[in-house]
Each structure stands twice: as structure tokens, then as C-alpha cells.
Amino acid sequence: MSIVSWAIFLKKLHQFRRAQSQTRSFLSTFGYRRNLQDYAELARLFPASPLVQLLGAAIEERSLLEKESSLPTNEETLNMLLPNITEAMERRSSRLLEQLESSLSFLATTTMVAPFLGLLGTVQGVLRTFLSLRGAQLPTLQLIAPGISDALVTTVMGLLVAIPAALFYNYFVSRVRKLQSEMERFISELTGMFRREVHRRTESTVKSVRD
Question: Mutual orientation of helices 36-45 and 50-68 as an angle, nearest 10°?
Fold first, then answer.
């Protein structure tokens, strides 16, 4: 359990650091883009960022809906498509959170189970020590101490396994919650961006008709 916990820690640490680094780089360039096609290029530059995954899901859903829709392209129709785009981003967000939280359940289980396994070993060792003294007429500390000390080793080992696992679990859960908040804010921001694009396209269409 200790080996697996440390392996999960190293793997998830690399995953979260890569995601956080690419997310920061993505956000630093996101505000300078004005065209949705420019946003699509970011998906190739920062593939490990969860926000880029949400952006890709939104663009894919928007393109698919515009191709399949038989309704005329006007403000009302485009506003009807916005909930579908938001739902597509929320579905992708749910899958991303599942990926980020993968293996964390093992750390939580290790935190709960390892101390009990150590305690079980201690109780078994103490019981075996006292059973071995049933035939002794005058038990002494020299007879009892070795068995008790050996029995306590399992409790120590259980704690040495559980304490790092608990630290790893709490650390990664906080990182997941932080990324979840960023994704929720980004979904709201993208929805507003698509809504503004709808109004711009509608205004340009009306202007061209008037001209």
C-alpha cells in the first residue's frame, strides 16, 4: 500500500503540475484572442490544460449544431443553441474531474485501512505473546517485552503508511477543487463570450440587410 501510494503521488503530482502550468500559459494568452478560430489553435498548444478541453468541447458543439441545424441563422436560433454548448462544456468538465480524481480513492482507503491493519497485527502479536506465557509459572518482563515490542512494529508501520497517504489525499483534493472552480468560472466566461458573438453576428446581419 505504501509503494502504490507513493506511485500515485508522483503520477498525480506530474499530472497536476502540467495541467496547472499549461492553464496559466493558456489564460495569459486567452484574453488576446478575438476570433474563435484563434481559440481553436490554443487546443494544440496546451493540450493538458482542463480549460483548453472545455474550449474545445464548446467549439466542437457549436460547429456541430450549426451544421445540423435546419433553422435560419438568427439571434433567436443562436440563443437556443447556447444551452447545448454550455451542457457540452459541463459534460466535458465532469469527465475531466473524474480523470483528475482517479486513484484518489485508493489514498483515502489507505488512510482508513492501514492503521487498522497495523492495530490488527499488534493485537495478534500481543495475543500470541500472552498465549505463549500460559505455561510459565512466573512470567517476567524479559519474557513479555520482546513479544510486545515486536507486536507494536505493525502499528508503527501502519501509521507510516497512513500518514503520507492522508497528506497526499488532502493535497490533491484541494488541487482538484481549485481546478473545478476555475473550470466553472471558465464555463461562465465562455458562455458569455458566445452570447456576445451571437449579438455581434446578429447586428452585422441586420446592418448588411439595411445596406
Answer: 140
Please tell me the chain's helix, strand, coil percentages from 3-state DSSP, rounded to the nearest 5: 85, 0, 15
Looking from the CA of 153 toward its CB, the CA atoms found within 13 Å total 7
- Contacts of residue 184, Cβ cutoff 8 Å, sequence gap at least 6: 93
Q: In angstroms, what CA-CA distances link 126 with 50, 189, 206?
A: 52, 62, 86
What range defines the domain where residue 76 resides? 2-210
| Residue 34 cell numbers, joined | 478575438
User: For 5-54, what is each residue's pLDDT tens digit?
Assistant: 999 999 999 999 998 888 888 887 776 555 556 666 767 778 888 888 88
In single-letter form, the type of residue at position 81 comes to L
**CB 158, CB 115: distance < 8 Å:** yes
What's the N-to-C CA distance of the chain in angstroms? 73
- How far apart CA 84 and CA 199 sit, in angstroms, is 17
Q: Count structural domains, the chain.
A: 1
